[in-house]
Amino acid sequence: MSRQDEESGRSRAGPEPIYTSGLMLLLLRLGKRWFAMDVRAIEEVALKGPVTRVPMAPSHILGVIALRGRLIPVVGLENMIGGAGMLPSEDSATLPRLLIVREGGYEMAVVVEEIHGMIEHGEAVGERPEDTPEFVREEFEWRGHPVWLLDAHTLVAAVARLAGIHWEDVVQ
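The chain above was modelled as a monomer; its predicted structure follows.
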């Protein structure tokens, strides 16, 4: 029991918590590439959701999902980093997992194939690789895999900008 707990009369079961200055990241995979995102930007993970295409939408917007009464745009990271899209040409599809990300007043779902779990990561351990999208903050190694750390604010801003949305209107 800590001195402060003794003085306040509280008792605590178990060991004292260990506090560190690292970020808690969620590790995710899309194709052969690994990504990570600060867990504070993640609203939830939706398992397998039907995605409906939106006619004339930009290539990085794969469609929309209805989640608890809200329509949420579905973003394909692979389209934003120069890869091929995941959705078939039909009007709708079911994707493996959707990571719901919220930034300011904007909410979006990012398609991922696998979610590994959370890891702790020190601030600015790796470097930002050259020729990467602006929303990649840095690259670091995890179990022999290069991982791109995504900056949620910059990612949402890039998605909004590519869709023709004025980002300044979103963050107010």
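The CA atoms of residues 82 and 133 lie 10 Å apart.
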